Amino acid sequence: MQQSIKAAIVGYGNLGKGVRKAIAQSADIELVAIFTRREPGQVEAGEAGVKFEHISAVEQYKGKVDVMILCGGSATDLPEQTPAIASLFNTVDSFDTHAKIPEFFATVDAAAKQGGTLSVISTGWDPGLFSMNRLLAESILPEGKEYTFWGKGVSQGHSDAIRRVQGVKAGVQYTVPVQEVIDAIRSGETPELTTREKHLRECYVVAEEGADREAIRAEIVNMPNYFADYDTTVTFITEEELAAQHSGIPHGGFVIRSGVTGEGTKQIVEFGLKLESNPEFTASVLVAYARAAVRLSNEGQSGAKTVFDIPLGHLSPKSAEELRRNLL
């Protein structure tokens, strides 16, 4: 029997909690510790059966952990944490700022090669599984057009932006794909689409007592980088309605490629997700790639890797022979 993989979690928000649950469902992976910026004792008080450490103690676990699963945010946490920790340990993260992935890869690659470790960056579902399916469909249908739709789902970043508006007590934002556009693409059409034509933004807002609701609405729908380029609706609700109807973190989406083969024969490739919990699903992807990171490291590889570089068989706890027999 293979020796179990010793994993640790860095960061214990929604994603870190999801990783803990995913490890519990993985018989070949053992959770050694969870590293947090908070006082470990405060976190441990409500969490039985796991060891919490302050993030400053990471280096003390060199040789005791096979892979660190990094669950911080892409804006400020991962750009610092991934290179630093990758110089000491195999790592996996979900860095999702698409435009900055090339420079992030280069930085992490240098750190991991210097440390002789392997670091899988930008896993999850987009980037991650959606990236993989974009590549697969483009390789099979070189003549064609690719479309990515997100939702219906909660966007954490856009929800945070709503809550920063003066007079807003609480709020949540849903990204919603335009169904008529998806139907047209599925029928074989290949339209040129603007940002506004692909998605709607639905905002549910709890206003402070006495706040100017029209001013709140105007500030939200005209907010650059978040809402100005989209058809955005703002619906005011009570705190009770927010808690009862909008407390989950669902998400999902589609990658669709519409292409032609031969003499104009229409072909469509589609991959979709419908998720009740975005962080729990993303966490499950991270854990599968943590397994792959350890395997690649054991094979003598080092440096940064993405989903494009990793054989699918390395994600599974099953042997290659089992996979050929049962899934091929």
TrEMBL record:
Domain of life per record: Bacteria
Domain Meso-diaminopimelate D-dehydrogenase C-terminal: 124-277
One Pfam family it belongs to: DAPDH_C
Entry GO MF terms: diaminopimelate dehydrogenase activity; nucleotide binding
Subunit structure: Homodimer.
Record pathway: Amino-acid biosynthesis; L-lysine biosynthesis via DAP pathway; DL-2,6-diaminopimelate from (S)-tetrahydrodipicolinate: step 1/1
Record's keyword annotation contains NADP: yes
GO BP terms, alphabetized: diaminopimelate biosynthetic process; lysine biosynthetic process via diaminopimelate
InterPro entries named in the record: Diaminopimelate_DH_Ddh, Meso-DAP_DH_C, NAD(P)-bd_dom_sf
Keyword Amino-acid biosynthesis: yes
Name under which the protein is recorded: Meso-diaminopimelate D-dehydrogenase
Enzyme Commission designation: 1.4.1.16
